Amino acid sequence: MTPQPYEIWTSHAGDLAFTITAPAAWAEDQRDYLAQYLPGRVGDRDLGTFHLAVYPDDAQCHEVVWQVTNPPIARRIEPIPGVVLLETRMPSGMRCYAVAADGVEHQARAFAVRVHERHIELYLHHGVRKPHGYPLRLMREAMLRTYEDHGGIVFHAAGADLGGHGVMICGPRSAGKTTVLTCLLRSTRGALLSNDRLILDRHGRLVAVPLPVPIARGTLDAVPELANAVPGLSRPQRTISELPRTFGATEKAEFSAREYATALGASLAPGSWLRTILVPRLSDSAEPPRIRALPPGETQQVLRASCFTPHDEFWQQPWLVPRGRPEPELHRRAHQLTHHLAAHIPCFEIRFGIRNPLDELDKTVLDIERHPR
After folding, report:
1. CA–CA separation, 264 and 18 (whole Å)
2. Which of 9, 102, 136, 297 is the most buried if burial means most Cβ atoms within 10 Å?
3. Mind listing the pLDDT tens digit for each residue in 215-255?
């Protein structure tokens, strides 16, 4: 049998390099998928290189699953709520993982992973849905842990780059982060960083975390540019009419990062220097837009609530790349950073009722960016 040809290329998530090996028949689609989320390297930092090999092969996948599930003792971990992995450690130092339960996508044993230091092998079953998304998930996990070990802090935040001026939009779920981000991008034609997680490195630079962009029905109805893009999205979608109108609904249309930015006439950016913090307080009302500069004490409260280092509500248990820093040290760094930001970065609360025309919110965020102080 003729050996299957493989291709090798390098992609960057922030300033972390990934040398990727994949079957030639798979590689083109994989590169196209990654290009939907990864805009390139951030700057001049060198955080090293991971080597990621992708094997879409049922037999090899079953072999690793068997290797994980047959030892008498295997550790159970839950990296995200509802997904349980089994971990087996080999005498060589290699760690092997298989899915024991999947309450999120219901694809138990769809993939398996072997990892030794910075060498990662991903094995995929042919029936897995969204197969090209799995390498990006591993890259994202490695990126978050590596940046934390090098002084980075993860925030539950959206972000944009406006010509080198970084804007971080902080808030809990359903606060209106993506809606404010949408208004900011379509008003300025800036560049998207991320819609839900950002890393702030120790030098004050925001680093984009590659994630899809879910858009709710209310925002789609109010932003024709996004609504018109839904039929052509790369991922299968429900029609807009099938999405709930309820404020805060979790069923949404899912854009890739580049599809979302392109629809708004924007681009993707890998990073930006933090200059402004926005705190959306959107409500299902007709409340007119209001802006309030937050004092340092309130700003620090917002930042602490939005800080996901060392505990993230979604990526709750590191697994692929063990943390190199103890949690107390990460807590201390996060506290010091939020205190520094509150004292030096202007922060504005935005109140707005979504029953008003969204153009009013466009003007509000534009006014803040034109006159940040």
Report:
1. 29
2. 136
3. 999 999 999 999 999 999 998 888 899 999 888 788 999 99
